[in-house]
Amino acid sequence: MRDHTSTTRRRSKRQTEPHVAREVDQLNLAEPAAAAYLNVSEAVLRYWRRNGGGPQFFRAGAKLIRYRRRDLDVWIEAHLSTTNTQPMGTGDAA
Fold first, then answer.
1. Has residue 56 been placed in a domain?
2. Can you give the residue range of the structural domain that contains 51?
């Protein structure tokens, strides 16, 4: 008679691995995904990395740049415009 508990454990572990990988992928974005998230080009992200002013990033290897989604959100919040060039309600009515 076979021991089904070890087989079941292995199957359930395999089933959770893609889910964990998706969560990690959503938390740590590669450069193309981070650029799309910010609606800028990858070239802009590279420029910001070289010259400063962009969101925080980390190196996951010699050439693997990653952005944490929460760092992108913090950067967006820090760069929200707080003033309008024209006060609300004073525009020309068409």
1. yes
2. 21-78
67: burial class by Cβ within 10 Å (0-12, 13-18, 19+)? Answer: buried
| Residue 9 domain-assigned (yes or no) | no
DSSP per residue, 32-50 = HHHHHHHTS-HHHHHHHHH
- pLDDT tens string 3-57: 555 555 555 444 545 554 555 556 899 999 999 999 999 999 999 999 998 999 9
Question: Is residue 41 assigned to a domain?
Answer: yes
Which pLDDT does position 31 carry in this prediction? Answer: 93
**65: enclosing H helix or E strand:** strand 65-68
Q: Answer yes or no: is 54 within a domain.
A: yes
Number of structural domains the chain divides into: 1
Phi, psi of 66, deg, nearest 5: -130, 150
